[in-house]
Amino acid sequence: METTQETAAQLAQPHRKVVLTALLWVTITAGVFFAGLNFLFGSQALAFIELLMVGYSVFLLYIIRKTPHLERWILAYVLPFFTAMMFAMTAPRTTPSVFAWVLLVPILAHLLLGRRLGLGVAIFFIATAGIIFFYKHGDSPELMQPLPIANIIIIALSILAFSHVYEISREKSELGLFLMAQTDFLTGLANRARFNDIFERERRRAIREKHPLTVLVIDLDYFKEVNDQYGHEAGDKALVYVARLLQKRLRATDLACRLGGEEFGIILVDTPGRRAMQVAEELRSALETHPFEIGADSIAMTMSIGVAEFGPDGDELRAMLAAADHRLYQGKAEGRNRVIWHPAKQPELVTPTAPTADAS
To answer: Edge-to-edge strand order for the sheet containing 339-340?
Structure first.
């Protein structure tokens, strides 16, 4: 399954798109204004660079409306934007006040690139701006006084630190809310919404890369008797126990989900039906041979499992769940505590017959 970093990046896309859009409009407006001023004051090279950024920003406004690769375009904007900022600092006619723009670097870098890449980019360009400043104004006693220099460095580092801490906090909060919304409150497994999302993603990958994909539907046998005999609190703990058993025996790339009640679903990526049958049998045997212990009681539990394979059993989740459910209840009817899977029938080979003598 996807890493938390990948999930965080996906969650951040909407607000990064809004920030980038606002920044592009600011770049267009400010670029036109400063290009005009620089033409008036004879800085044609800098004015030309600013007009290039204006044109590039207009182009990006059109691109980011529908692009599926927002991160790439953000990077394609941020690096030229910060580079143009550095170029402006080196221009002979610019005043020392232009270096104030460097204070925007850590804020924009973190908002648009995230805490890791944003921190690296911010440190690089802040350091570059510092080198330019000392190279350009190192022989100016007025500008090189220790106290003002120290204040500027402390302010820049403070903004860098605050931007980084804010981005970490925002990312954790957003990720926490997302996981809460897609997690079963009792077992900690994925809920039905996340199951649907992950299946859709893996379905597209299975089609694109021609990889096998299977789904298991699991139902605990006679679970009502556990609730009736030991109470609902024990029943809840038994469900948690089963969830831990599933997680322990599945790969990190697979996904276990609580579909509802005592029913669970599992997505097995890169797994053909025959191998999924073996995995399901291992899970069934593990529960059968490891009773749930609660206090002095040992509660024996079993499960019935239906297996469905992407392709032969359909290419949508609804069809595959229907096929797995059908096999699950077939297993229930046959005595429970079993795994049912029906591999796709191979087409029969038809051997052509030799033509008869009187064939026309």
So the answer is: 255-260, 263-269, 213-220, 303-309, 339-340
